[in-house]
Amino acid sequence: MLTLVSALLAPLAAAIGYSSYKARQFEQAYPNIGELTDIGGYRMNAVHIERPETADLPALVFIHGASGNLLDQIGAFLEPLRGRAEMLFIDRPGHGYSERGGPDNALPSGQADAIAALMEKRGIDKAIIVGHSFGGAIAAAFGVRHPEKTAGLLFLAPATHPWPGGIDWYYHVSTAPVIGWLFNHALVVPLGLRRLERGTLNVFRPNPRPDDYIMKTGPSLVLRPATFHNNAADFVRLLDYFKTQSHLYVQISAPTVIITGDSDDIVWEHLHSQGLARDIAGSELVKIKGVGHKPDYLATDVAIAAMEKMSGHDRDLQAAARIAEARLAATAPPAPEAKLPSIPQPTSAPKPVATPDLQGTT
Question: Which long-range contacts (CB under 8 A, 24 or more apart) does 72-79 make?
């Protein structure tokens, strides 16, 4: 009997050891470039760019999406905005190198409160809050709960409203008692590494993913057991959260811009982006043809124009979107020659909210 138990436990122990080893490798490859700040019993991690003398924009706070970390939004915005604003790039609670904090931080409202507390610690009274994908849910909660700190809201392919359906199976497994611990510590790393390439390509689809995206943004950090569990915990409560909280968006009065692609099959723009435009009086919806789930990378210039407009500059965002469309069309690879199938094939509807295959930044 002991021999049988040993035979069963040995592979599990080996898998856990391998995952622990790889998690250390991930952190060596992508060490923390931010600074941890205690905000009341736990620490939030962020890269803080002090306000430069040449600034012509208010402070900017960037919130990454699911499965991500602060390197994602740094890759999109740091250099284009350098010298123009004070910037705060945040690891959301339980992501990147931020500690999780209490159970409220599994909800967008709790994470919004954590960001507000971090802003106070960093001496930022008011800022334009920029949220991509899942970060859009937190930006919306921030606008509702902290209007005095909100100079504007910029939503980029946001997830903000209830959707039909559910979430992928592994989020439920990851958060289950006992079996979740085993799954996170033994299986997530080997499964996730196999799917990392495809997952990041899917997030950019139908647009090409930058060749250096994985190298610069550290997506493998989400495969660490605790981080993967936190990411899953964010998702398992999200639908119920939207059902009870999304009606509060009508309270938002800050200047608001929503930028979305019309080819996003990670988060349905007709539910989320159009829902925000309907709910927030005076908001502007900017839809960019041919762009998928990453307008932060594909239409960075449009996003910056939106920041400028919310800061009082005269900017035509719809014209900026048309310019971006022309640029993307000119650089797009030629489409493959269409071939008619011999037997008509059924098509499937896109997913209403991001559920990446163990890895994908949303």
Answer: 72/132, 72/217, 72/296, 72/361, 73/130, 73/132, 73/296, 74/47, 75/213, 75/216, 75/217, 75/297, 76/296, 76/297, 76/300, 76/303, 77/130, 77/296, 77/300, 77/303, 77/304, 78/49
Reported as a single tens digit per residue, the pLDDT across 45-58 is 999 999 999 999 99
Tokens of 205: 């689809």
Per-residue pLDDT, 341: 42
Tell me the whole-structure pTM to 2 decimals: 0.92
Where residue 288 falls among pLDDT bands split at 50, 70, 90?
very high
> Any alpha helices (H) in the chain, and if so which ranges?
2-29, 70-81, 108-121, 134-145, 169-174, 179-182, 188-204, 213-217, 225-236, 238-245, 273-279, 295-298, 300-310, 317-331
Q: What is the chain's length?
A: 362
